[in-house]
Design a protein that fits this description.
This protein is α/β, with parallel strands linked by helices. Helix content is 40%, strand content 18%. The chain has helices at 5-11, 31-40, 78-88, 105-117, 147-158, 192-204, 218-230, 249-257, 263-271, 275-295, 310-319; strands at residues 16-21, 47-50, 56-61, 67-72, 93-99, 122-126, 176-181, 209-214, 237-241, 300-304. The strands form two sheets. An eight-stranded parallel β-barrel has the order 1-2-5-6-7-8-9-10, surrounded by six helices. Helix 4 crosses helix 5 (147-158), helix 9 runs antiparallel to helix 10 and helix 10 (275-295) packs parallel to helix 11. The longest helix has 21 residues, at 275-295. The chain is globular, with a radius of gyration of 20 Å. Bound molecules: flavin-adenine dinucleotide (FAD). The site of flavin-adenine dinucleotide has 23 residues, from strand 5, helix 5, helix 6 and strand 8.
Length: 320
């Protein structure tokens, strides 16, 4: 039986190394994923996450001048990728992300059945972002509006309750899962207290641990952990780090993720003449962040690879 992420966190004698990978773009090869994972195996990750990317709306301009609206899945195949990675890296627990966006409850159930058949037991449960074309998150007609609703469906399946209530002698699933937390507040939440309230509901519904949104000032993480503890959220809180790698991150990351980039970091990035230099600044900043987090005995430092391993490798080499 695959181990649960929470068991790894409880058993660890020191801070773990973990990371997140993206499925390759449609038309690309699965080996791209292995090229990301292979070098990082040196740091003995106990689990690795696989993101899920919902459909996107694209507009194609025809010669006539008319715009055609199309939805495309640019990175399909999470269930298959989770299985391929599990098969290839047998010592590592794969943690596919499950989101609400773009899924009806039945499609969710079917994906969960597939994952369960494949022996996958760890999940990260998320709502997903609004489509770029929408101003706010719009659930599918028979889908979930919030991560907590998807959690409730999983809890039901863990009790053997499927959508079709007439099914008899059903198999009980045994998924365990983590959820997302936001040290600088989720962009839609009216205030931090409201965000923490909903985070606590996810934990009370069974989330074993929290993985945070990226942050560039460790104080934001430490304050967030203190706030969670004050509100009775006592599960492990894994810090998520994404090294800056291109200059435009200075504007895109704050507007997309509601996060601040400290002036000291922004200043160093602005001075760079090439993106290679920016990448190096990002690595150095993440090394300092990681060292301080490890000193504070965080459960794991979780890195967002964005499909490229070289910067994460350099960070991990310096700190693990
Ligand atoms: P929720 O917990 O549903 O919260 C969303 C907002 O609604 C928050 O403001 C919250 O305060 C509020 N809220 C929560 N519950 C309720 C309720 N019952 N009533 C009213 N308000 C409520 N996105 C992807 O598409 N794919 C991924 O693979 C992916 N991986 C991620 C991994 C991590 C570690 C993180 C931090 C984020 C990831 N995301 C991913 C992004 C995530 O989907 C977005 O941040 C999304 O906007 C919110 O997801 P959530 O699970 O936090 O949502």
């Amino acid at each position: 039986m695959p181990k649960k992420v929470i068991d790894h966190l409880h058993e660890a004698k020191k801070t773990l190394f973990s990371f997140e990978i993206l499925p390759p773009l449609k038309g690309k090869d699965i080996n791209l994923i292995y090229e990301t994972i292979d070098p990082l195996m040196e740091f003995e990750p106990k689990f690795l996450n696989i993101t899920y990317h919902r459909e996107e709306v694209v507009y194609k301009r025809h010669k006539s001048g008319l715009l055609e609206r199309k939805t495309v899945h640019k990175r399909p195949g999470t269930v298959a990728i989770a299985a391929a990675v599990k098969y290839k890296y047998q010592k590592v627990n794969v943690v596919p992300h499950m989101i609400c966006g773009g899924f009806t409850k039945e499609e969710t159930e079917n994906a969960l059945i597939d994952l369960h058949f494949l022996g996958i037991r760890n999940l990260l449960i998320l709502r997903g972002d609004p489509l770029a074309a929408d101003k706010e998150f719009i659930p599918e007609k028979d889908g979930h509006a919030h991560a907590i609703d998807l959690i409730k469906q999983i809890n039901n399946l863990n009790k053997g309750i499927y959508l079709d209530e007439e099914l008899q002698n059903t198999t009980k699933m045994d998924f365990s899962f983590g959820v997302a937390g936001y040290p600088e507040k989720h962009f839609e939440a009216p205030n931090m207290d409201a965000d923490i309230y909903h985070l606590k509901k996810k934990v009370e519904a069974g989330a074993d641990y929290i993985i945070t949104q990226m942050f560039y000032d460790n104080k934001k993480y430490f304050d967030f952990v203190d706030l969670c503890r004050k509100h009775g959220i006592n599960v492990p809180i894994i810090p998520g780090l994404k090294p800056i790698s291109v200059k435009r991150h200075l504007t895109i990351l704050p507007s997309t993720f509601n996060i601040d980039i400290p002036e000291a970091l922004a200043h160093e990035v602005r001075k760079c003449k090439t993106n290679q230099e920016v990448r190096q600044v990002g690595v150095e900043w993440a090394i300092e962040q990681s060292k301080e987090l490890i000193k504070h005995n965080v459960p794991s430092v979780h890195y967002y690879t964005m499909g490229k391993a070289d910067n994460i490798y350099n960070i991990a080499k310096a700190v693990f």
